[in-house]
Amino acid sequence: MEQNKDYNNASEIYEVSYQQVYQWVKKYEESGENGLVDRRGKIELTSKDKDQIEMRKLKKDNERLRMENDFLKKLQELERGGF
Questions:
Q1: Taking a C-beta distance cutoff of 8 angstroms, is the pair 31, 39 a contact?
Q2: Which string of DSSP letters, residue by residue, matches 29-78?
Q3: What is the pTM of this model?
Q4: Which of 26, 30, 41, 76 is most exposed by smallest CB count within 10 Å?
Q5: pLDDT for residue 83
């Protein structure tokens, strides 16, 4: 906004309250464009949380691969006639 920061005019143009425009300007001044990004409902995961999620995923993948391997072994047995 310009130096005079005409919050009233901006609030009329964007059909929001004076207070909303004021908050936008403050956020922009403090953090730039990133300050205006809506982050509601988006929790930033800690490194520990990310590691736990990755570990769960790897365990599931490992279990799936074990099952697939067991299935292929059984299939080979059946194809050889050793049931």
A1: no
A2: HHHGGGGGS--TT-PPPPHHHHHHHHHHHHHHHHHHHHHHHHHHHHHHHH
A3: 0.45
A4: 41
A5: 59
pLDDT of residue 54: 97
What is the torsional sign of CA 73, 76, 78, 81? negative
Structure tokens at 33: 């464009």
Q: How far is CA 64 from CA 5, 50, 60, 73, in A?
A: 60, 21, 6, 14
The C-alpha angle with vertex 25 and arms to 24 and 28, in degrees rounded to 5, equals 85
Q: Which amino acid would we find at residue 8? A: N
Query: Residue 31 — φ and ψ, nearest 5°?
Result: -130, 5
Q: Is the pLDDT of residue 3 over 60?
A: no
**CA angle, 37 then 48 then 32, to 5°:** 20
